[in-house]
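Handout, tutorial session.
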Amino acid sequence: MALRMLQIQIPSTLLQRVRVSAVEEARELVTFLLENYIQELERKQLRQAYEAYYTNRTPPEVAEEAELMADFADADAEIDHTVAI
């Protein structure tokens, strides 16, 4: 992901409403909000990519995955039993 410079002007009334009195606090607030927004965009894109992948799988791919899941289920059961002891 490329980093870009972003300049935002925030009205003082908004800063007063969120009780931000210093420029540095305002920067931290904006950075926090933008990071959360970017993370949500990334999660949404990942969800869409997974949905597209699972929607477009062929029957042989689905069968292969089911077989792998069955193989791992046995191993998972063994690990669960070992941990429970």
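The second record follows below. Compare its token runs with those of the first.
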Amino acid sequence: MFELVFMILASPLGTLVLSAFQDSLYAVIVLSDCDECGFNDLGKLLFGGLILAIIVGVGGSLLWRRIREKQNSGSEFVSIKSNGRA
């Protein structure tokens, strides 16, 4: 298992993904650098991030459900059961 992960990370695509992830982490660190932020402010930021994640998750699931309903408007179920008895 570890060999597979190592091979993926050593591939050109894996290094590209890993470097993009590393760059995004650096950007988050630079953007979140706040000299006036105390411990209480970090709790507010964490709570705000949690609420934002819940809102994005609910919105995404509602959007996904509406797209799925529009695509499957017709029923593809075919019954082989006869209505009358002979």
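Points raised in discussion: The first helix runs from residue 2 to 10.
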